[in-house]
Amino acid sequence: MAKVLAKNVLYIGQGVAPGVAPGADTFDIIGNVTAITGPELSKDEVEVTDMDSVNKEFFGDLANPGSINFTCNRNYGNTGQTRARTDAQAQTLRNIRVERLDPSDDSVLETVNFVGEVMEWSEDNTQGAAATVTARCKITQDLTFT
Amino acid sequence: MHNDLYNWLANNAAIKGAVGSRVYHQSMPQANTTFPALAFEMVGRTEIEPDFDRYPAAVLDEVRYQFDIIAKQSADAISAAIVVSNELRSLKGVIGTTNVQWTRLDNENHFEEKEGDKLRRRVVLDYSFIIEAQSE
């Protein structure tokens, strides 16, 4: 498939990571998501130029997986949204999962697993518009793509 | 929503007081000779704030209706239109199977049009409703 319209499902685990491994965790969907951005993969540049170098020399520092940012329509009955907001007020690491789906048949194109902590949760209630949320989950350690 | 809105209009006490049983979907019957009368039709429907939870999960739709209040005298058309508009502005909650979360007056126009060698008056109200839609 050359191109695909974005469709994602975002999950948050019930257990506290990393004590509970993803394979042993139970996940709840963070519902009514309108957009997910991230992970934002990057590495700092470490310069290792020395007197024997002909040109400047670099290699990459440890990978920084960044964060995922997501927006959703506020669903007061959704367990995943409730847990994410609670976590924004506490120091709780969770197993987080993002499934990238083919919108034509909901088959899974890729699964992203990582441990993260909800760092930001911002609610918007504007009259005449749907109630929405903007949130950020910081990724810690490595993440896997399967 | 059409049936729910029709039933709500036809059974609303204030609107019945203004137009009686003369509530029509789309166009007023040619044979109707009693006024004021109310005709209404949908003029647009759009899903708003779509998210990854697709239909048949509940979605929010913005639905636009045009309401025509028709009378022989302009005072009668305007009086009836005020009653209808006041009731529409207050409409919220579940009517039938439709969950109405928001109503908004988008436009009001006053017209006169020929009926044979006479004139009749028409007040047009354009209203938008935001509803939580599931299967219909």
Tell me what the structure shows.
The complex is a heterodimer of chains A (146) and B (136). In chain A, a hairpin with a 7-residue loop joins strand 8 (108-124) and strand 9. Chain A has one helix at residues 79-87, and strands at 8-13, 27-30, 33-37, 42-47, 58-64, 67-73, 94-101, 108-124, 132-145. Chain A has a 7-stranded antiparallel β-sheet with strand order 2-1-7-8-9-6-3, covered by helices on one side. With 146 residues, chain A is mainly β. Chain A is globular. Chain A is built from 1 helix and 9 strands; from the N terminus they run E-E-E-E-E-E-H-E-E-E. In chain A, 6% of the residues lie in helices and 51% in strands. Chain B is an alpha+beta fold. In chain B, 25% of the residues lie in helices and 48% in strands. Chain B is built from 3 helices and 6 strands; from the N terminus they run H-H-E-E-E-H-E-E-E. Chain B has a 6-stranded mixed β-sheet with strand order 1-2-3-6-5-4. In chain B, strand 5 and strand 6 (118-133) form a beta hairpin. The longest helix of chain B has 17 residues, at 74-90. Chain B is elongated, with a radius of gyration of 16 Å. The mean pLDDT of chain B is 91. Classes of the chains: A mainly beta (146), B alpha+beta (136).
Features of this protein?
heterodimer, A: 146 residues, mainly beta, two-stranded antiparallel sheet, 9 strands, globular, B: 136 residues, alpha+beta, 6-stranded mixed beta sheet, 48% strand, elongated
| Average pLDDT metric of chain A | 95
Number of strands of chain A: 9
| Helical segment count of chain B | 3
Q: How many individual helices of chain A?
A: 1
Strand sequence of the main sheet of chain A, in spatial order?
2-1-7-8-9-6-3
* Structural shape of chain A: globular
What helical percentage do the residues of chain A reach? under 10%
| Overall average pLDDT of chain B | 91
Determine the strand fraction of chain B and express it as a percent band: over 45%
Structural class of chain B: alpha+beta
Global structural class of chain A: mainly beta
